[in-house]
Amino acid sequence: MPEDKPPTRQTSLPSSAFARGVRLAALPVGFAGRTTLGVGKRLGGAPAEAVLLEVQRRTADQIFSVLGQLKGGAMKFGQAMSIFEAALPDEIAGPYRETLTRLQDAAPPMSPGVVHRVLTKELGTNWREQLSTFDDVPAAAASIGQVHRATWSDGQGSDGIEVAVKIQYPGAAKALRSDLRQVARLSRFFAVIAPAVDVRGIVEELQERVVEELDYRMEADSQSIFAAEFADDPEIVVPRVVAHTEQLLVSTWLESDHSLAEVITNGTQEERDRYGEAYVRFLFAGPARTGLLHADPHPGNYRIMPDGRLGVVDYGAVARLPDGVPPEVGQLLRAAVEGDYAAVTQGLRDTGFLRPGAGLDAEMIERYVSPFVEPASADEFTFSREWMREQMARIGAPTPEGMGTALKINIPRQYVLMHRVWAGGVGVLSQLGATAPFRTILEENLPGFADPVG
């Protein structure tokens, strides 16, 4: 787990739905004020592009500032959005990229008194016998819980083992649900800064998974499956579960002082390529090896280990795929790589990806899909912010091959989370600017992709 310490300022999770709602409700008021200011400048002769840019910048600054202060669902939404930062124009993303990175890695911590009360509730009054050492200053703080370094005693006189104790914020459940309801109402304002990102879909997915996120027993089960499967992996480290309750999770400590977020900010190209490849291999290997897809791909969950491996934490959000990824996904992608868009179009209809009555032929599908297939078509592909922005601008454009096609494409429910995780993964790879053998990774881990069409 990370050794870098978050700010020592002690805060509590705002539990009042009214107080939290006031902060979020202030966003549209601020937006309206900035829009009025922009219109005034426009009337005064400022170019339309400059006015829009100023509105977007100021809106983004306020949005992410509020999200970071609130934690809970607002913080979790901010983390989910942050992985799409590469899709934003650089002149807009630049001023608050640092804020997005902070959202990925940290949030204001609970006070020691609150932490001790939670430990007493979850482990009993003798919790100090089980945790022979406990650092009151959290090593990491995020959306619904924070992590402390400690020593777990086995009760048999040994020195114990170094552990990470993940503690859920009191009132997190109520706050999480309240925040997500508020954020859902404000999704149109987020669209100002990310018009090509399905903001409402992200919020709906977070709302549907609230129960799983809040129950650390479910997270412990998922993490244990990953830990067993990746126990001897040369590239990936998954912490072992030591103990758990509904609101507390104890895992073996990962000795790491920085995350993939720091590699994005300061990493060498060698580090970007190395950890970008390990990251994408883990995302695709998970369903094949465990029947589970790690569904929280933001970089703060990926730790750089001293031995060069990639440590992966936070298993609260997973997609359950007991039979792995359906082979038709790999078959469709393979057909696109081979340029057989008649087969792609028919396959999209058969699997429900095309809305009933959608008037799209193979040529239009090819113009829409083919740029996305580039990473799977070459032996190596270099992801970049420029490439990501180009794709998002293309599909968001008011043209037949842009938004005209996007509106006729449907994501069947069983593929929604898978699609969002992979889209988020591409966003992270684009932030890294990583070069990876994407096609080989797909051939090794995506059922149906290695088989030629026909």
Question: How would you portray this structure in words?
Answer:
- The protein contains 21 helices and 13 strands.
- With 454 residues, the chain is α+β, with helices and mostly antiparallel strands.
- Among the domains are: 17-106 and 186-195, no CATH class; 327-445, no CATH class.
- The strands form 4 sheets. Strands 1, 2, 3, 4, 6 and 7 form a 6-stranded antiparallel sheet that branches.
- A hairpin with a 3-residue loop joins strand 6 (241-244) and strand 7.
- Helix 3 (72-82) packs across helix 8.
- The longest helix has 27 residues, at 17-43.
- Mean pLDDT is 80; it is low at 2-18 and 28-46.
Coarse morphology: globular
- Percent of residues in beta strands? 5-15%
Low-confidence spans: pLDDT under 50, at least 5 residues? 2-18, 28-46
Mean pLDDT: 80
- The number of helical runs is 21
Rounded to an integer in angstroms, the radius of gyration calculated over CA atoms is 23 Å
Largest sheet: 6 strands, antiparallel
> Which structural class do you get from the secondary structure elements?
alpha+beta
Q: What is the count of β-strands?
A: 13
Helix content: 40-55%
Termini separation: 48 Å
Helices and strands in order, then pairings?
Blueprint: H1 17-43, H2 48-70, H3 72-82, H4 90-93, H5 97-105, H6 112-123, H7 127-130, E1 131-134, E2 140-141, E3 145-152, E4 161-168, H8 172-185, H9 187-190, H10 199-208, H11 210-214, H12 216-229, E5 236-237, E6 241-244, E7 248-252, H13 260-266, H14 269-290, E8 292-294, E9 302-304, E10 310-312, E11 318-320, H15 327-337, H16 341-351, H17 362-377, E12 381-382, H18 385-396, H19 403-406, H20 413-432, E13 435-436, H21 438-445
Parallel strand pairs: 5-10
Antiparallel strand pairs: 1-3, 2-3, 3-4, 4-7, 6-7, 8-11, 9-10, 12-13
Helix pairs in contact: 1-2, 1-8, 2-3, 2-5, 3-5, 3-8, 3-10, 8-10, 14-20, 14-21, 15-16, 16-17, 18-20
